[in-house]
Structures are given as structure tokens and as C-alpha cells.
From TrEMBL:
Gene Ontology CC terms, in alphabetical order: cytoplasm; endomembrane system; membrane
Pfam entry (one): MIP
Gene Ontology annotations of biological process type: one-carbon compound transport
UniProt protein name: Unannotated protein
GO molecular function terms noted in the UniProt entry: water channel activity
Native source organism of the sequence: freshwater metagenome
Length: 217
């Protein structure tokens, strides 16, 4: 396994987490309008996702997300060892990205988010958001050699910010990282396991839907 593959996953996940948390802090510094704050974070996320996938996709496949990696393993696209290394790299990257975002805005490097997110409607939102993400990746990835995946993934995540009550985390590693920033984009550490389970369930549903839509029967 080439080091550059894991470096790409580390950089991609770190920058994604940094952008989400950093834009959240900037948004709350700029305005007290919660709707505008959400728009700022969504806009930053859409742009950075598209750029990262386009830039690093040819190197690592641009997973940046354990849910995507788990599905790739189930789909036999990558080996178990590669999947484990990807996931570890993604979690480390997300944590480092959040720490950098905190430091950039003169906050404690390792914070402790107090934003509890445990209600069932939020968990349902994460199932839907992650299922949609996996479905988009699989269906669009088969079209035109996957050239529209960056746009499609960014479009799904950006729009899901506004139609899901959880504002779409849809990423176990970034969800974990966001627990260490008590800011707009944070999530209480005790809420992380529920979100991760919902995301993995959504990923499996998304894979099932993609298989069903791709079947000739």
C-alpha cells in the first residue's frame, strides 16, 4: 500500500473537518442569524468537498468518510486491511483538522462540545443523509467515468444541510472530530455513538438501494 493514498485520505478528511468547524466559528462571528450561519457552513462545505474530491479522488478514491470506506469494503472494492487503515487515517485526520480550526480561531485546541444531539428525529436524519450520500456516489460514479461525482456529492451534502433536522453530519470520522469543538458545528461526545450507528445503517441502506437500482432484474 502506498503512503500517498493514506496521506490523501488524511489531508482530505482533515481539511473537510477544518472547513466545517472553521466556517461555523466564522459564521457565528459574522452574524447572529442562525439561518445565515447555516448557509455559510453549508456553502463552505459544498465548495471544499467538490475541490477535495476532484483533487484527491485519483489518488485514494476520496473517501474521507468511514461510511464510504465500509461500503467499499462490503462491495469488495478494497481489502479489509486497506479499509482499516483508511478508517484510522480518517479519524485521525478529522481530529487534527478540528484541532487546527480551534487554534486558528483562538479557541482551546481540544474543546468539549455541549451540543447534545440524541433525539430520534436527528438519528433518522443521519440515516437518510448517509443513505443518500452512498446512493449518489454509487449511481453517479457509474456515469461518465465518475466525472460528476465531486459536483453530485457536494450537491447532496449541501442540500441535505437544509432538509435534514441534524444538518447532515453523514460521516463518522468528522462527527467524532466535531465533538472536540464547542462551537456551532460541535456535537456532544456522548451523542457521537448514536450518530455513527445511524450513519452506518444509512450507508448499508444506500448500498442496498444502489444495488437494487443497478440490477437488471
Amino acid at each position: 500500500m502506498k503512503l500517498r493514498i493514506f496521506l490523501a485520505e488524511f489531508i482530505g478528511t482533515a481539511v473537510l473537518a477544518m472547513a466545517i468547524v472553521g466556517s461555523g466559528v466564522m459564521a457565528t462571528n459574522l452574524t447572529k442569524d442562525v439561518g445565515l450561519q447555516l448557509f455559510i457552513v453549508a456553502f463552505a462545505t459544498v465548495l471544499i468537498l467538490a475541490v477535495l474530491i476532484q483533487m484527491l479522488g485519483p489518488i485514494s478514491g476520496a473517501h474521507f468518510n468511514p461510511a464510504v470506506t465500509v461500503v467499499a469494503f462490503i462491495d469488495k472494492s478494497i481489502s479489509a486491511l486497506t479499509a482499516i487503515n483508511y478508517v484510522l487515517t480518517q479519524f485521525i485526520g478529522a481530529f487534527i483538522g478540528v484541532v487546527i480550526a480551534n487554534v486558528m480561531f483562538d479557541l482551546p485546541a481540544i474543546g468539549d462540545s455541549t451540543h447534545a444531539k440524541t433525539s430520534s428525529n436527528l438519528l433518522l436524519s443521519e440515516v437518510i443523509a448517509t443513505a443518500g450520500l452512498i446512493l449518489v456516489i454509487h449511481m453517479v460514479g457509474k456515469q461518465k467515468e465518475g466525472r460528476y461525482v465531486p459536483l453530485a456529492v457536494a450537491g447532496w451534502i449541501g442540500s441535505a444541510y437544509f432538509f435534514t433536522s441534524s444538518t447532515t453530519f453523514a460521516n463518522p470520522a468528522v462527527t467524532f472530530g466535531r465533538a472536540f469543538s464547542d462551537t456551532f458545528a460541535g456535537i456532544e461526545l456522548s451523542s457521537v455513538p448514536g450518530f455513527v450507528i445511524a450513519q452506518l445503517l444509512g450507508a448499508l441502506i444506500g448500498l442496498g438501494l444502489a444495488k437494487g437500482l443497478s440490477s437488471e432484474r
